[in-house]
Design brief:
The chain is built from twelve helices and nine strands. The chain is an alpha/beta fold. Helix 9 crosses helix 10. The structure holds 2-acetamido-2-deoxy-beta-D-glucopyranose. The site of 2-acetamido-2-deoxy-beta-D-glucopyranose has 6 residues, from helix 8. It is found in: Membrane.
Length: 329
């Protein structure tokens, strides 16, 4: 903290004296992983546009899609105001999940294979040690560099936002029945779960915003551990799978129990998609650095809340295929 030359100053000195042609090369690249899922690619596009518009840092977007969707997302980026972003499009092969997910007739959309991309980050990212993963249904209002600067404690492979660490305005959302403990995600009637000795009242965390260390992730074989808990769920049905996002959250709660660093709560204001009638105060939303519409009521759909805060970053589909659902439209 008391270093004589804070990093920013050093950078300025370099720029001044060496007169580099491309000062951007000097800056650390920030890799951000976002999935572009079929039927909701507009979500990824809005998230990317919000990040890009609110930072001067050097962001490299990893846009992950399924094979059929890749030409569409590429055209969308290249033929819109997003054409100047730095990005790589990566195909995710859902065969890797074969035998690891349980069919859920109640909410098949949660079984969208791209929900599991976050389990496989080191297969995607080779050149960077630290990476950010974001769900597609977020909007970033702060400078993504601040999130990237989240400190990971020694021995931690990731940072998440803790569900008990919510600002007090979340009380309102809590009152509409949101789950914030392990009990909401794991079936404590099952011996396998009880044998873990994790208290059911342990606070859960939301893996929709992740800052991760790939070195530590590989070292701890996190992907293998997550796969083990997916497989066990297929055999023993251990999770409360009806919960929003539960299918991908439960294995993470198990693998990262007691082993993650916190993310500043303002960097993950969530549950905006929880109910069509629950709203936050405008003042509070202005302070928020990242907004997450987790839940059923998505801002590209109708009904939804605080839709204006999302739509402001939306970039229309040049092919006209993706359309916002709005009343009277
Ligand atoms: C990532 O983890 C490795 C291994 O523990 C550690 O040496 C390194 O400093 C960590 N990097 C960051 C950016 O936290």
């Amino acid at each position: 903290m008391n270093a004589p030359f804070p990093q920013k100053v050093t950078k300025l000195i370099f720029l001044k004296y060496f007169d580099l042609e491309s000062p951007e090369e000097m800056e650390e690249e920030i890799p951000v992983v976002i999935c572009a899922a079929p039927g909701r690619m507009g979500a990824a596009v809005a998230a990317i546009s919000s990040i890009y518009s609110n930072t001067d840092s050097n962001v490299l977007f990893y846009v992950v899609g399924l094979r059929n969707g890749i030409p569409h997302i590429r055209k969308w980026i290249e033929n819109s105001r997003l054409k100047d972003i730095k990005f790589k499009i990566v195909e995710f092969n859902p065969m890797v999940l074969k035998g690891k997910i349980r069919p859920d007739a109640a909410r098949p959309e949660l079984l969208q294979p791209l929900n599991f991309v976050r389990f496989y980050l080191p297969l995607l990212i080779h050149e960077h040690e630290k990476v950010i993963y974001l769900d597609d249904d977020v909007i970033v209002q702060g400078d993504i560099q601040d999130l990237y600067d989240t400190k990971l404690s020694h021995g931690h492979a990731a940072a998440f936002s803790n569900d008990c660490d919510l600002p007090s305005t979340h009380e309102m959302v809590r009152s509409v029945g949101m789950q914030n403990t392990y009990m909401g995600f794991l079936d404590y009637r099952k011996q396998t779960i009880r044998d873990l000795g994790i208290s059911p009242s342990t606070c859960s965390f939301n893996p929709g915003v992740i800052v991760a260390n790939m070195t530590e992730w590989k070292h701890q074989r996190i992907t293998k551990q997550l796969e083990k808990w997916m497989q066990k769920n297929v055999e023993e049905n251990l999770y409360s799978s009806t919960l929003a996002g539960g299918v991908a959250t439960s294995p993470m709660l198990l693998v990262f129990h007691g082993k993650y660093s916190p993310i500043n709560p303002l960097w993950h204001i969530r549950h905006l998609g929880w109910s069509p009638d629950t709203r936050y105060s405008e003042h509070f939303l202005q302070e928020a650095k990242l907004l997450h519409w987790n839940g059923r009521y998505k801002p590209w759909d109708y009904p939804s809340v605080h839709t204006d805060l999302w739509e402001k970053w939306f970039v229309p589909d040049p092919s006209g295929t993706f359309k916002l659902v709005r009343p009277n439209s």
